[in-house]
Design goal:
The chain contains 15 helices and 17 strands. It is an alpha/beta fold. It is globular. The chain binds zinc ion.
Length: 405
């Protein structure tokens, strides 16, 4: 199966390539990009004429809870812990297999229609999410969320082991990590057990971390530490970590994160909605920590639109640091693409567009709405003015999943 994309304005996000390449063609064979140059001809290939539309890597959303489309705009006015305990968990306890499958598919449709090709998920009823992901042909890393606040941690870990045994070789686009809900919903003994498991099986850990002030206080009390990153230092060494949120970090925490194999998933919309605060993203970047972007579940993040997430991320750092030089547009796009791939250890496959990489890409029509015109700077237009609904074409693993051309 060959696809030839004609007349692309390519923003590859690939080091060593020009930032913008006008009027190039991209030849895709099976799941891989085989050639990028002007005037490619191939009689066998299905041709899609993009007529100068922007082609860029599909977004990588590094923190989500896929079935949470169910909770879109259902609650307002709650802090994180009350929101979870009073509004979310009681409903989640009653969800059926069919619910998880149905609401996962709604999220995957939303992703596909707004430009995201890969997502890092953390939830339960993992088999139903796998089924939905397989049906919708998206790329996903997922898990069975682990926590032990109710004493049922062992059962959850057994469920994760079952998933890993059954599905590790099921679909190459569906990969797995160890999802830990948080240090505050676990305890020292359980954290030791799950980190040993991750290390032994060479799996990443995806965990909420320092989302708000109350969480930080709870961790300090439970683990008897001065700052939460000391728990990471003690138990998480040698494990590739994706830490969602990282809103309430001290300089001491950042010093430790820098020494570990950490990527941060910054979820600005969710953090603002739940009154958590604003993560010190510029400080993390200044310390060479890999920062990526996530939406979180739609219950707090509202939607899957990574353009919206990029805009919030950029504006917040410029504003809180009183420095417009923070988070320049091209660098913000990196957070949503290649940095996400690095967090998942997939940077040789996805996150940028180049020969021999997987074809996970989108096309946007910048001219389709008057909002974007005139286009003075293309990268700033993408970060500040484009919306997910402007995405007209999306391909994951070489398969066309959206085509409004
Ligand atoms: Zn979350």
């Amino acid at each position: 199966m060959k696809v030839l994309l004609k007349n692309c304005k390519l923003i590859s996000m690939q080091e060593g390539r020009e930032k913008i390449e006008d009027n190039v063609d991209i030849l895709i064979e099976d799941s891989y990009i085989k050639n990028i140059q002007k005037n490619i001809t191939d009689d066998e290939a299905q041709k899609v004429n993009l007529n100068g539309k922007v082609v860029m890597p599909g977004f990588i959303n590094t923190h989500a809870h896929v079935p949470m489309s169910l909770f879109k705009e259902s609650v307002d006015g709650y802090l994180l812990q009350d929101w979870l305990e009073k509004k979310i968990w009681p409903i989640e306890d009653k969800l059926t297999s069919d619910d998880i499958y149905k609401y996962s598919k709604i999220t995957f449709d939303e992703m596909i229609n707004t430009g995201t090709t890969c997502i890092n998920d953390q939830y339960f009823n993992t088999e139903d999410i796998i089924k939905a992901a397989n049906d919708k042909k998206i790329r996903i890393e997922l898990t069975r969320t682990l926590m032990d606040s109710d004493g049922n941690g062992k059962q959850r870990l057994d469920e994760l082991k079952y998933i890993l045994d059954k599905y590790s070789d099921y679909n190459p686009n569906i990969t797995f990590n160890v999802g830990v809900h948080g240090l505050y919903t676990s305890n020292e003994k359980y954290i030791k057990e799950v980190t040993d498991f991750a290390r032994k099986n060479n799996l990443k850990i995806h965990m909420h971390f320092c989302e708000n002030s109350k969480e930080v206080e709870d961790i300090k009390r439970e683990y008897k530490v001065e700052y939460p990153a000391q728990v990471l230092e003690k138990y998480f060494r040698g494990i590739k970590l994706i830490l969602a949120h990282c809103v309430k970090l001290t300089d001491e925490d950042i010093k430790i994160l820098k020494e570990l194999d950490v990527s941060v998933s910054h979820c600005p919309v969710s953090n603002l909605k739940l009154g958590c605060g604003v993560a010190p993203v510029q400080k993390l970047l200044d310390n060479d920590i890999n920062v990526t972007l996530g939406t979180d579940g739609q219950g707090s993040g509202s939607n899957m639109d990574m353009f919206e997430t990029m805009k919030f991320a950029a504006l917040l750092q410029k504003g809180i640091n009183e420095n417009p030089l923070n988070m320049m547009a091209y660098d913000v796009i990196k957070l949503a693409t290649i940095n996400g791939a690095k967090a998942l250890g997939k940077e040789n496959e996805i996150g940028s567009i180049d020969i021999n990489k997987k074809a996970d890409l989108i096309a946007i029509d910048l001219e389709s709405t008057c909002v974007n015109k005139p286009i003075n700077d293309i990268f700033s237009t993408i970060v500040y003015n484009v919306k997910g609904i402007n995405v007209q074409f999306l391909m994951t693993n070489g398969e066309i999943l959206l085509n409004k051309i």
